[in-house]
Amino acid sequence: MTPSSENGKREISTEERLLLLILAAIQFTTIVDFLIILPLGPQYMRVFSINAAQFGLIVSAYAISAGISGVAAGLFLDRFDRKPAMLFLFSGFTLGTFFCAIAPTYPLLVAARIFAGAFGGVAGSLILAIIGDVVPEQRRGAAMGMVMSSFSVASICGVPLGLWLASHFSWHIPFYVLTGFSLTVLVASGVYIPHLREHLKHGQDLHPIKQVWAVMSEPSHAKAFLFMASLTGAGFSVFPYIATYMVSNVGLTERQLPLIYLVGGLCTLVTMNLIGRWADRAGKPKVFRVMSLTAIVPIVALTNLPHVPVILAIMTSTAFMICMSGRMVPAMALMTATVEARYRGGFMSINSSVQQFSSGLFAYVSGNMIGQTEGGAMTHFGWVGVVSIICVLLCIFLARFLKQPEKVKTEEAPVFEAA
Predict the structure, then answer these.
(1) I want to staple 61 with a disulfide (CB 3.0 to 4.6 A). Which of 100, 107, 113, 306 is the partner?
(2) Is the pLDDT of residue 289 over 80?
(3) Please, what is the angle between helix 3-10 and helix 137-153, to 10°?
(4) How far apart are the first and last CA of the chain?
């Protein structure tokens, strides 16, 4: 095989790239919708006269709703054409975002977050199922890198813009803008997402509950869910407390905090695509092991960082973000290859629920491990780093069981090439 022909198989086609851009735009809107809540806490607490615990409910309502709806969607997701399923879910998410924009009271805002999470969380899992259906395995790492880069773009552009709109106008405006953008993406999705029915040819003879049980009881799937819980726990045991630790222990000011996310987002925007292509060439299991072992260094450094100059603090947090996001690219490509096409939608939906629940669980456990001195400094953050490292090592072990079934190897039919 000549290098050109080999590259032809590994390079993403124009049609695939357009579809991936649409999927990345959908992913971008759901991520911004979730992330923009976090820095708006002071406004919500002032406008609605609520305390920190009540604000926490606004944050967790989306994740909890997404987790529950993910399990429910697993009953039916593989029984429909991917295109109308995605249009339905993203329409519901867009409507939920609009409800957030017009919510006049605290209870209605919480209800709107629950509504948006019920659709947005499942849409994210369906994105992965579509990638698994459309993109052949040899190009899937690069495809995952493209779509998952939406998180970096959200950190770089979406969240800062939302904060600027909220600070100059009101907290309602970011949601109005996001609703308008979502409507544009929804129209583009209806035009450019192809009908995907290949998974329906395998037959859906089982009752929905029995089918979900078949997905969850399969030993390889159970290991994959445990793998995802550990993968998520490694990051969410540390990530929610980086900002607080940087201010209270490292010496950054609140005005300097955006630099952490801006620089980290810019760097991961580049590295996630590079790592995706590297995974396609060198092998996803190998790249996952390398990135996971490399991540141990910034985990230890970040969770034990003393009072240092700003530039060193940014370099440490950026290295942490690069390694953590770098693990996700080959990991999600491995996950999509673990399951047969007929179960992929339900599998990814349940997998999304596992991800949502585990992120909340590990954040809660870490929060209870962390203490505080009389001066306000955080304590025991190093032990949180130990929890993260244990999760990283467990992921490396479990990745050995994420092997591609024989049926998956023969079923990869590039939709656009076939057309």
Answers:
(1) 113
(2) yes
(3) 50
(4) 24
